[in-house]
Design brief:
Radius of gyration: 34 Å
Strand order of the largest sheet: 1-4-5-3-6-7-2-8
Number of helices: 38
Number of strands: 24
Structural class: alpha/beta
Distance between the termini: 93 Å
Shape: globular
Length: 1024
């Protein structure tokens, strides 16, 4: 050890020798935080220089200040430790007075060559690299610190290019930066950029790594065929790849060693002046350490540190003590990071106690699995534990129960666990038990209510908990149950309008999750408020006094239809109550076999939808909605019928070219009236819809709001518009794209809608969703037009503008959507028509939010005995209600043969089939493959329906041969065609009492149909 004055002198000499290099590696701001011996005025001067002239100038001034001043004893060690702590390890190695870990001359050469190559290729990287693709991975492998990430993210607000430049500036300050960065590029599928940097393709790199592992490493067993990461092989692989990349790059370097080996500030300079041997650290190949194997391992596969902020630690505390709790933290405050911390702490404690530990994290949306797996749980836990993400999209080659056995942390959609628990109960396969897990984490846990999948899982837990109490009294062994952790941004109040009801709702959620308490931040509330930016709330109210001749024309047509079928209602056209009336009228008419009323009600509903579209978006979108419907109707009427000799121009309205080669169906008076009415008014409707003078007032307000925000914030603007339907999301996106004014202020818009098939509008695939969100993060898209899919959970970059476009649901959705506006000086805008009730509902939601926090506070302060008694009471009530519901469902279920029902077409009441002709495929698809049924329908090509799924595909539409009513789709399963029926297109007739009913889903029909005997059908189909 050097000490006292001698130490100071030697340290100053090190500064003079290595200044040129060291100043390149220091991050001034973070280092100054640790230098408590420096006077405040000196710090301010250095910070100002760094801010105005850059970090290199600031570092130079810092080194000069340290060189010239007289500082208290031990200041050199404080400075070296500051460098180590702030992500400047290379600078620390040069500045360590003990000279035990100086970089070798060869490593300096490699560093300089890599730096020069990076400088040459920087334009390519800036142009092609998406900073968000690599940022989290760089932090995960310690190539960047958390502060680095924050600075890069801040730079990225000025565009992706600025973010990449900041990233490159910071990574070169780290050890082994080149090989680690190339590995990150390959792991994030930026193989082309990695090849640009190394001259080695990904396949060559893999081959080289494989050769190394075969020659030097232990035998590696073939991993499980899963999307998972095992800790030790990854560490070995990264280590081997780093060595391979460094050596291969030096061999093919574009700069000769003589150019850089005696560069200013190098170790060789110091060696010559001090008389040291210049092979310091080079023999070992560990950058200056020939004995410390742990350091080698650490540099080969560094892990991000897992720390919680004080407010996060406050809410996590009871869970760290093993209690069941709900954590309620606002969107963007790091709930998931808290869950990761609790997971690691839980597994560590189990391991130390030699007890089995296993964690399952449940989510309610498929994209959340990948998000939580890649961005949260895997980076922080892979060094110690096996982590895997599973969803319905995962192609597993082994069973879920086997996955559970072989992993420590499983992130899964709740339905996968529910299915496995059901299979276990039915004895269909091994399945899993809740007792297989020691910690169960439920994301967005406010969905643990009623018959939601979360609640079905938790009911099993509660039943076992009550059984365990009984077993304890009988001194029998109990079944172990997992600790429960619920995460939510807003538990809501369940539609309560009184404080007592709100408290009851909070208690129900707590009871359903068996939570000992619901945790919110209290002691560190100031820090939480600093972390979460509350957006400025505005209302943009459209006073809709415009003339609307397009709407008037639609009202005129609807009045004619109502007069034709002698219908009347008290509800206004274009409203939700009118739509409900039309649906009920259509169902009633179908049951009664009144085709005229059913058809008129169906068409009135379409016109009502057009009125609602006209009220929300453009007139042309409403017109297109009607035109698509009527073109489809006419096309169905002209379906090819080989067995029909009918011909003529009924219903063709003069468009005989469209029926060319086709034989039109015979239309009755209702068909002819409705189709003719639209096509007679078609030209006028289109002309009115294309007239810009009568633009929707609400759209004008939306346009002004977008223009104002994007003009004000220029490059950093990023926003989400929430709207009600998929159709309106798509149409609004089209409107923005078509309007050049938006492009002029830098708006780059795209729609984001759900992946489910519940809507008539085509869904987005999971991959399409991921791509859009990825582009939004990088700034290639800066305005999302989204349905409620973007409100909850999905990892969407901080926004500075959130617009709810005529959409208000409940207080939970309001909190979730508002929470997306996390950037500084954010704005939350509600755009609506005056008199629409939207503003009033938003005010109610504000009131309910305050009520919710008050209810949470009351529940938190309840007497412990009273709380425990109330929770137990609610749990027993939930179990009993569920039992009663099961009994009622069982009582409703027909035990008799399915032949007791008939299916008739809902449009023309023609007999379709008997219930005993229906068979089920995969417990969900209801098919009829009898020859008699085949004579009753026509297969119509429909490209929109041609989709492939995991075990089947749809191949067109089947329609009634009598009236062209859609009945279902043709599905291909195991290379055979099956007509798959949709029950909503039929009326079900019960033979025993002649009652007629309509159902939306097969599951609602209280009859069980037999499974399809595939071999028997194949045998029957041989003739074909």
């Amino acid at each position: 050890m050097w000490s006292g004055h001698s130490s100071d002198k030697s340290f100053r000499y090190l500064i003079s020798c290595f200044r040129a290099r060291v100043k390149m590696y220091i991050q001034v701001g973070p280092v100054l935080d640790y230098l408590d011996f420096l006077p405040a005025d000196e710090k301010e001067k250095i910070e100002r220089t760094a801010f105005t002239h850059g970090d290199i100038h600031g570092a130079d001034l810092l080194l000069s200040t340290l060189e010239k001043g007289l500082w208290p004893l031990g200041w050199t060690r404080v400075f070296v430790e500051a460098l180590q702590r702030t992500g400047s390890p290379l600078a620390a190695r040069y500045m360590d007075p003990e000279l035990t870990d100086l970089p070798s001359p060869s490593s300096e050469n490699t560093h300089d060559e890599c730096l020069q190559l990076l400088s040459l290729l920087q334009p390519t990287l800036v142009d092609k690299l998406l900073v968000r693709d690599v940022l989290d991975k760089c932090v995960a492998v310690d190539l960047l610190t958390v502060e680095d990430r924050n600075r890069i993210s801040a730079a990225e607000n000025n565009g992706n290019e600025a973010g990449v430049r900041e990233l490159l500036k910071r990574i070169v300050q780290k050890e082994n930066w080149f090989s680690t960065f190339v590995t990150v590029l390959r792991q994030t599928e930026n193989n082309a950029l990695a090849q640009e940097l190394t001259g080695i393709s990904a396949s060559e790199s893999n081959a080289e790594t494989e050769n190394l592992s075969q020659e030097d490493g232990p035998e590696v067993k073939e991993p499980l065929p899963l999307a998972t990461d095992q800790p030790s092989p990854e560490k070995q692989a990264l280590d081997m790849e780093n060595n391979s990349l460094e050596s291969s790059f030096v061999a093919s370097s574009i700069v000769s060693e003589s150019d850089t080996s005696l560069a200013e500030g190098s170790v060789s300079c110091l060696d010559e002046s001090l008389g040291h041997n210049s092979n310091m650290g080079s023999d070992s190949g560990t950058m200056g350490s020939d004995s410390d194997e742990e350091n080698v391992a650490k540099s080969a596969s560094p892990e991000p540190e897992l720390h919680l902020r004080p407010y996060q630690m406050e809410v996590a505390q009871p869970a760290l003590e093993g209690k069941n709790i709900i954590i309620c933290l606002p969107t963007g405050s790091g709930k998931t990071r808290v869950a990761v911390y609790i997971t690691k702490d839980h597994l560590d404690k189990k391991k130390n106690a030699s007890e089995p530990g296993k964690v399952i994290v449940l989510v309610n949306k498929v994209p959340l699995v990948e998000q939580l797996f890649r961005k949260e749980f895997l980076p922080f836990l892979k060094k110690w534990y096996c982590v895997i993400g599973l969803s319905g999209d995962t192609q597993l080659k082994i069973s879920f129960s086997e996955v559970v056995k072989s992993h420590d942390v499983i992130i899964s959609t709740a339905q996968i666990l529910e299915n496995s628990l059901l299979n276990s109960e039915k004895g269909e396969d091994a399945g899993v038990q809740l007792s297989d897990f020691s910690l169960l984490i439920i994301d967005e846990c406010h969905h643990t209510n009623k018959e939601a999948v979360y609640n079905n899982i938790m009911r099993r837990y509660l039943k076992q908990k009550l059984k365990n109490k009984r077993l304890q009294k009988e001194h029998k062994p109990v079944i172990p149950l997992p600790q429960i952790l619920g995460l939510t941004a807003s538990p809501g109040v369940g539609g309560a309008n009184k404080q007592v009801k709100a408290e009851e709702h909070i208690l129900k959620i707590c009871a359903n999750l068996d939570a000992s308490t619901i945790q919110t931040v209290k002691e560190n509330i100031g820090q939480l408020k600093d972390q979460i930016k509350e957006p400025c709330k505005k209302f943009a109210i459209a006073d809709d006094t415009r003339k609307d001749p397009f709407k008037d024309k639609l009202l005129e047509i609807m009045t004619k239809i109502q007069t034709f079928c002698l219908m009347s209602t008290m509800h206004d056209f274009g409203t939700q109550p009118y739509e409900q009336w039309a649906i009920q009228t259509e169902k009633k008419a179908a049951r009664e076999g009144n085709r005229k009323d059913r058809l008129c009600a169906e068409h009135l509903r379409k016109y009502n939808e057009a009125l609602q579209i006209n009220d929300t978006i453009r007139m042309i979108d409403a017109y297109n909605h009607l035109e698509t419907f009527y073109n489809d109707e006419r096309e169905k009427k002209f379906a090819i019928l080989d067995d029909s000799d009918d011909s003529g121009d009924d219903g063709s309205n003069g468009d005989k070219d469209e029926g060319d080669g086709k034989k039109p169906m015979k239309l009755d008076g209702t068909d002819r009236f409705l189709i003719t009415l639209f096509f007679d008014n078609k030209k006028m409707l289109k002309k009115l819809a294309e007239n810009p003078e009568h633009e929707n007032e609400k759209l004008i307000k939306l346009r002004n709001t977008i223009m104002e925000q994007y003009t004000r914030t220029v490059e950093s603007a990023r926003g989400i518009i929430f709207t009600k339907t998929r159709q309106s999301a798509y149409a609004l996106c089209q409107w923005i794209t078509d309007n050049e004014k938006f492009a002029e202020v830098g708006v780059k818009a795209h729609h984001l809608i759900g992946a489910g098939h519940s809507s008539e509008f085509k869904p987005m695939t999971q991959n399409e969703q991921k791509e859009v969100i990825s582009k939004f993060r990088t700034g290639k898209i800066n305005l999302l037009i989204a349905t409620t899919v973007a409100e909850e959970g999905l990892d969407i970059k901080e926004c500075n503008i959130i617009i709810r476009y005529g959409l208000v649901t409940n207080e939970i959705a309001m909190v979730q959507a508002r929470g997306r506006a996390r950037a500084d000086e954010s704005t939350y805008v509600l755009v609506a028509h005056s008199g629409s009730g939207v503003v009033e509902r938003e005010t109610v939601n504000d009131f309910r939010e305050k009520m919710m926090y008050k209810a949470i506070n009351r529940v938190q302060n309840m007497n412990p005995q009273e709380y425990a008694h109330k929770i137990l009471e609610l749990q027993i009530q939930s179990i009993m209600e569920n039992k009663m519901k099961i009994k009622r469902t069982t009582a409703k279920h027909y035990k008799e043969n399915p032949s007791l029902i008939n299916f008739i077409c809902k449009n023309c009441s023609v007999f379709a089939c008997s219930g005993d002709h229906i068979h089920v495929i995969e417990k969900m698809h209801h098919v009829n493959m009898t020859p008699e049924f085949k004579e009753l329908y026509v297969v119509r090509e429909n490209k929109a329906l041609q989709k492939k799924f995991a075990d089947y595909q749809t191949n067109g539409e089947i329609i009634c041969k009598t009236c062209a009513q859609a009945w279902g789709t043709m599905m291909v399963h195991k290379a055979l065609d099956f007509p798959c029926l949709k029950i909503k297109n039929f009326v079900v007739v019960f033979k025993n009492n002649s009652t007629k009913k309509q159902y939306k889903k097969w599951v609602e029909l209280p009859i069980t149909f037999p499974d399809l005997d595939y071999s028997q059908y194949c045998f029957c189909s041989d003739e074909d």
